[in-house]
Design brief:
mainly alpha; three-stranded antiparallel β-sheet; two-stranded antiparallel ribbon; about 5% strand
Length: about 270
């Protein structure tokens, strides 16, 4: 029955997201699969955190879309996510959910919260940072860089990242109170969960920016000369500029969210 309920809930949410153009068709299929697993192998704790990330990120992607439309042409990820982006954001959490079902241990929940806090922080930073009136600065040397530059950060985006990650931590405390897993975390108060989410998620978002500024595969547009994440810009193929060939934006997301997961795991052990 859990599999049926999970599938129906995931189908409804993914269908609405596809209709609102937040997901491509492949992204919607991936979201249905992921949501079903999160609910059936986990419970409201796992499923609720996933939905919180997805719904808030989808809403924020629509804020002042006219201002962010040009920036999205430079991003490998955009407001309409495909299957690769869906699994890059929630895949590690799904693995943790499955492993927890097979070998129950609070460590999986800590890792899950860290990874989801990181992708939430990164997504919120991108969406809100795109609205900043001040130009971003490089995470490497703090020099001003053009909007949309990989590895560029802004005060507005950084604040959004910290808040988003902290909300994931707070939601973990709330959702655990509604599930039978609450006794495993009885000594962890709301503020401790917020700290776990905020610290690990913000660290993951900064790691994402650092990887984006150094080793992520980037291209240069032959038409406008802009350095972008995509293989096509201004209607024509782009040229390789820098980075490791396998270090795509999705790879960056996976690595940074994994790092955040381990940080949250460590914080959970310390604060428990």
């Amino acid at each position: 029955m859990d599999w049926i309920i999970g599938a129906l809930c995931a189908l409804f949410i993914a269908g609405a997201a596809y209709w609102k153009r937040s997901l491509s068709l492949s992204g919607a299929v991936a979201a249905v699969i992921m949501g079903t697993v999160y609910y059936a192998a986990g419970n409201l704790f796992w499923f609720g955190i996933l939905i919180l990330f997805f719904v808030t990120s989808s809403i924020f992607s629509k804020l002042r879309g006219d201002r962010k439309a040009e920036l999205e042409r430079s991003y490998a990820k955009s407001g309409r996510r495909d299957a690769g982006q869906v699994f890059a954001n929630g895949g590690l959490g799904m693995v943790a959910c499955i492993l927890n079902a097979l070998w129950p241990n609070p460590a999986w929940a800590f890792f899950f919260i860290g990874s989801m806090a990181a992708v939430t922080a990164d997504t919120w930073a991108t969406e809100w940072g795109g609205l900043s009136k001040r130009p971003p600065r490089s995470v490497l040397n703090w020099r001003v860089v053009p909007p949309g530059t990989s590895g560029g950060i802004s005060s507005l985006g950084s604040m959004a990242a910290l808040i988003g990650a902290g909300i994931i931590g707070g939601a973990a405390w709330l959702l655990l109170g509604w599930t039978n897993a609450a006794q495993d975390f009885i000594s962890i108060t709301l503020w401790k969960w917020i700290i776990i989410g905020a610290v690990s998620g913000f660290a993951g978002a900064m790691a994402d920016s650092l990887l984006g500024a150094t080793v992520q595969k980037m291209y240069r547009c032959k038409q406008c000369g802009k350095v972008v994440e995509v293989g096509e810009h201004c209607g024509q193929a782009t040229l390789p500029e820098r980075g490791w060939s396998w270090m795509s934006n999705d790879a960056v997301n996976i690595i940074s969210s994994a790092a955040a997961g381990f940080i949250a795991w460590g914080l959970g052990v310390i604060l428990a």
